[in-house]
Amino acid sequence: MRNKVFGLLIILCIGVTACDSNRVFDEYQSVPNQWHKDSIVEFYVTPPDSLKPYNLFVNLRNTSNYKYSNLFLIVEMNFPNGKKVTDTLEYEMAKPNGEFLGTGFSDVKENKLWYKEGVVFSEFGDYLVKIQHAMRENGQVNGVENLEGITDIGFRIETPQNSN
Q1: Closest residue by Cα to residue 129 from 34, 19, 54
Q2: pLDDT attached to residue 5
């Protein structure tokens, strides 16, 4: 019986991995309770190929404690040669009726948010991706100090589906 359960787990793991054949890099970091405005989540990435284009995503998980319909992020990519590219991004997080976007049946929704398309990592070495929230209340100058309802922030690199 024990061998059957172990065998089933192995098959399940292989099946889950095979379904995600476009994944090159996929990593998450947890946010304890609240995401502070000065807390920067960092991902070190060593791209496997300097000629192929990749699609980049910011992944995040949110709960019903997230009280906004959108999300502003500052994403900075640091290249091995010292160059930096910083983008301020806005994402919709909920439908007009308040229902959260994303996948998941429970209180936690998972969101796969486009960051960049067709990126070629032409420089050899490690890239550093930094992600920080930039949320503001309407009419307020100062940012939201502690953003509630975000549990995990991730970064994902995929090969485009039409490239093999």
Answers
A1: 54
A2: 45
Contact 80, 105 (CB under 8 A): no
- Phi/psi for 132 (5° steps) reads -140, 145
Q: Which two tokens mark 2?
A: 């024990």
In this structure, what token pair is assigned to residue 32? 């304890």
The CATH fold assigned to 24-158 is Jelly Rolls (2.60.120)
Going from N- to C-terminal start, the domains of the chain cover: 24-158
Tell me the pTM: 0.83
- pLDDT tens-digit profile of 24-41? 999 999 998 899 999 999
Phi, psi of 15 (to 5 degrees): -60, -45
Give me Rg for the CA atoms of the chain: 18
